[in-house]
Write a structure and sequence with these properties.
Blueprint: H1 2-16, E1 21-25, E2 28-32, H2 41-44, H3 49-61, E3 74-75, H4 82-97
Antiparallel strand pairs: 1-2, 2-3
Helix pairs in contact: 1-4, 3-4
Length: 99
């Protein structure tokens, strides 16, 4: 499920021409709004924090709740369904259109 979410988020960002690097381990992932590969705090700090602020607000307006910090991860749980993932990818696409 998290691989599907990662692929959807990556495709959405690419479609919109927005910088996005996603780090994922198992069911945990973190999209960083940067073109750089994120391997430590220094590279994480290259993320566009103003863009993240707007991204967070747009996702909230789409009904998707994520951590309010660019430096926190997202988690998929055992109760998320394939439909949940599809709806989240679509909401993510809609949110990115407003950035």
């Amino acid at each position: 499920m998290s691989a599907k979410l990662e692929a959807g988020f990556t495709a959405n960002a690419k479609e919109r021409g927005l910088p996005c690097t996603i780090n994922r381990v198992g069911s945990m992932m973190c999209p960083f709004l940067t073109e750089q590969t994120v391997v430590n705090f220094e590279t994480a700090k290259t993320s566009d924090l103003d863009l993240f602020r707007r991204y967070f607000a747009a996702l909230s307006e789409e009904g998707i709740n994520v951590a309010p910090s660019q430096f926190e991860g997202m988690f998929i749980s055992g109760v998320h369904t394939d439909e949940d993932i599809e709806l989240t990818i679509e909401a993510h696409r809609n949110a990115l259109k407003r950035l």
